[in-house]
Amino acid sequence: MIPARFAPALFGLILSGMMSCIVSGIATLRALGLAEGFGAAWMGSWVVAWAIAFPTVLVVAPLTRRIVARLTA
After folding, report:
1. 54 compared with 73, residue with greater pLDDT
2. What are the respective helix, strand and coil percentages of the chain, to the nearest 5?
3. What is the dihedral of CA 39, 40, 41, 46, to 10 degrees?
4. Which of 34, 44, 53, 70 could join 20 via S-S bond, C-beta 3.0 to 4.6 A?
5. Exposure string for 22-51, b = 16+ CB within 10 A, e = fewer
6. Residue 49 near residue 22, CB atoms below 8 Å
7. pTM to 2 decimal places
8. pLDDT (tens digit, 9 = 90+) per residue, 11-32?
9. DSSP for 59-70?
10. Other beta carbons less than 10 A from residue 73's beta carbon
11. 34: closest CA among 43, 24, 42, 46?
12. What residues does each domain of the chain span?
């Protein structure tokens, strides 16, 4: 089991992985259509997108939490 202190990083890893997979899949589908090699192109795009998304989530999440705290009662 993973220690609870790693929960924010694990959350960011999973969230960024799922979101980048979905978004890169849609973008790749729009760019290529369901052509031969679509799956390989999608996975290649996903790896690059996830490599950018994960550190971005770790940096942006604290700022987002502060903004949400100010916008809510």
Report:
1. 54
2. 85, 0, 15
3. 90
4. 53
5. eebbeebeeeeeeeeeeeebbeebbeebbe
6. no
7. 0.81
8. 999 999 999 999 999 999 999 9
9. HHHHHHHHHHHH
10. 2
11. 42
12. 15-71
